[in-house]
Amino acid sequence: MKTLNIYAALLFSIFAINFSFAQTTVKKETLQVWGNCGMCKKVIEKAAKSAGASFASWNEDSKELKVSYAVNKTSAEKIQQAVAKSGYDTQDFVANELAYNKLPGCCHYERKGITKVDLNMGSKKCCDNAKCGKEADACKGMSCCKDKTCCKS
Ligand SMILES: [Cu+2]
């Protein structure tokens, strides 16, 4: 009986180790990405995968990009940067203007909440940063904060 207990404990610990390992390495996330059609879907998913996502699926109705990625390989930030670079606005990054302009007409989606000062290539939307304007240097290096066009005083 005692050996059985030891085996059970051993088996359990192996499962626990595997489980925690899997939990820390692969992350699933849903990111907001603006776009229009099936062509956008291809470009967005390709960009996400090029940035290291093992799974990427964008839904044109919900504008949601579901991704899975290994945390030691990439991050939600890197994936969004790649998507923004290909011409699509994401929840945290603004699309590259040149890439956006090069998109086919059908793909020229309506851009959400983008002001002229945000249109620096791939810049983070600092105005959405909760710390923006409240803490000194919180938005250092973010051009729209530098010229105080978006910060609440
Ligand atoms: Cu499109």
Indicate the topology.
Blueprint: H1 2-25, E1 26-32, H2 38-50, E2 53-59, E3 64-70, H3 76-85, H4 97-102, H5 143-146
Antiparallel strand pairs: 1-3, 2-3
The structure holds copper (II) ion.
Question: Could you walk me through the main structural features you see in this protein, from its secondary elements to its overall organization?
Answer:
The protein has about 150 residues and is α+β, with helices and mostly antiparallel strands. The protein has 2 domains: about 25-120, Alpha-Beta Plaits, CATH 3.30.70; about 125-153, no CATH class. Helix content is about 35%, strand content about 15%. The chain contains 5 helices and 3 strands; from the N terminus they run H-E-H-E-E-H-H-H. It has helices spanning about 1-25, 40-50, 75-85, 95-100, 145; strands at about 25-30, 55-60, 65-70. A 3-stranded antiparallel β-sheet has the order 1-3-2. Strand 2 (about 55-60) and strand 3 form a beta hairpin. Helix 2 crosses helix 3. The longest helix is centred in the N-terminal third of the chain and has 24 residues, at about 1-25.
